Amino acid sequence: MNRRNFLLSSVASIASTSVYAQMNHHGDSYERLNQAGLISRPPLADTQAVFDSPAPKAINPGKWIARASLPLPRSEMAWATEMNGRMHLIGGYGEQRVDRSYHHIYDPQKNIWIVTTPLPSGANHVGVVTIDKKVYAIGGYIEQNRKPRADCYVYSDSLDKWERIAPMPSAAGSIACVSINNKLHAIGGAVGDTTDTKKSIGTHLVYDPIADSWEKRAPMHTPRDHVGAVSHQGLIHVIGGRVDNFHTNSNLHHVYIAQSDRWEARNPLPTARSGHGAVILDNKIFVMGGEGTNRVFGQNEAYDISKDSWEQYAPMPTPRHGLGAVVIGRSIYVAGGGAVMGGGIQTSINEAFTLQA
Q: Which of 12, 41, 131, 171 fits as disulfide partner to 150, beta carbons 3.0 to 4.6 Å?
């Protein structure tokens, strides 16, 4: 049985779990959405790659290192989440389909990927977040960046099992999901069954896991999707994203104050983009990757929360969008993503950023 068939049979079987470890080989880490088979890095990826940031340079720029590749090239899973010291990547594009139910777990201590119980139904741009040692998967699209669903699920690591929870009041994809006080905040996203009718929304919903119910909160001032979002000390930071499409990317940066149910502006993101990662490390919000018109960004810009200011750090060696990014320990792990604008090329590349010498 070849590697691909082995992986597929593992994903198809709920009871099956497999382990996969391979260091990145950038020459054969890519695959087309419309054609099977691994390919070398396409020339267009180099043409569209952007690394320059207008932000001042950090004193310690940090560094990136290659880590074990994903079991297969994939993208548009819409972020990732950390639980128990491991990264969870769920759904997305891969193997010539856009409605995959993949569930890959990365263990940085062993530098291995685990192929485990897939989503009950596949989708791309699924919002994910961890609450009380469970992973929540919210909404997503069942066609290529369109035709959203309201379906939501929760995964128990100890049981290795997904369960359906109350659906969102209305369907949406590419939603930002974060948690505060053990409640899930689902912010923004996009709706529309066709490319022509797709629109960003500013909706802000809160899910209570105990009550298994949704409530509305103050919406974003500017509707956006494909944003970066993190929660920190009772605030939710929503950064960048797109207004309807990546031709109208935003550099907006707002915080949601839960206690007063209101939004405030903060210093904007230096490089407007969408489909980027956003994580917290050392009291700073690191924002990496993303895409724009004929652009795929490698920029790694960090927001100092206490100073309301931005700096640039070492950019990603491999610019990508629609990636998964989490902090585990003292490192940022960035896996998968699209190497060219749009969803035409996926990659299995996994790179880690650290500030340590």
A: 171
